[in-house]
Amino acid sequence: MKRRNFITTAAAASAGVATTNLAAQTMTQEKDFKLKNNINHSVAQWCFNMYPLEEFLAILRDLGVKGIDLIGPDNFDLLKKYDIHCAMCNGAELGLTDGFNDPKNHAQLIKNYTEVIPKVADAGYTNLICFSGNRRGMNDIVGLHNCYEGLSKLMPIAEKYGVVIQMELFNQINHPDYMCDSSLWGVELCRRLGSDNFKLLYDIYHMQIQEGDIINTIQQYHEYFGHYHTAGVPGRHEIDETQELYYPAIIKAIKDTGFTGYVAQEFVVTWDDEIAALKDALLRCDV
Fold this sequence. Notes:
The structure is a single chain. This protein has 287 residues and is α/β, with parallel strands linked by helices. The chain is built from eleven helices and eight strands. The protein has one domain (36-284): Alpha-Beta Barrel (TIM Barrel). It has an eight-stranded parallel beta sheet with strand order 3-2-1-8-7-6-5-4. The longest helix has 28 residues, at 3-30. The protein is globular. It starts with a helix and ends with a helix.
């Protein structure tokens, strides 16, 4: 292709994406928004923290969204007020980089989770997030064993209260040195623990960057995945035509496994109208 023709074609394609994005925003704003309720939808609160929590809960209620992610016990009463389910609770972790792979963290983590697990159960919620922590030169097999040792002490209390502790998978671009960066590493930890009260939070965005093969991985290892997060690749933005993942097919694959948990939107908004962006994403996942 001649350079001039290539530039003209590329410019037209770019304009087409922009037009599609604008059209999607307009469509989402103008059409009647109604979810089918075949999927349990949730939204990560931090992505919409331009809204005060109570205002955002009212928005979710009006949209018919049942869940919200990453809220701790201090705000459980507020969620009850708006009848929004905490699909993924937090508040026991030490952070993303200090986790169960380092034995020096075990005493504090076990104390934290022992205190928070009953609060999650008392509120009527199920899922509580955890993290592996960073490697800091540690061998992955050693880290796997350390995670097993720490988490195995929590499984009896998690089982007693019916709470599922879920370790999130991250990629190495956004979270360099994080240990739980592989589906297979996480699955092996699940198998060693041997409890239905430990699962993986399968973040589709992170795993597309880290290893790809999303639908096949979901089909093969879905029994170990207790929760899903979305976002567009590249950029962690809207899940529209500007990115490489086709979410309707991914969500259908999740649904076809018999999954009855929550799928949470966790993308960084670029649209001028944040709620229009959320509506668009929800409809794309509402198979």
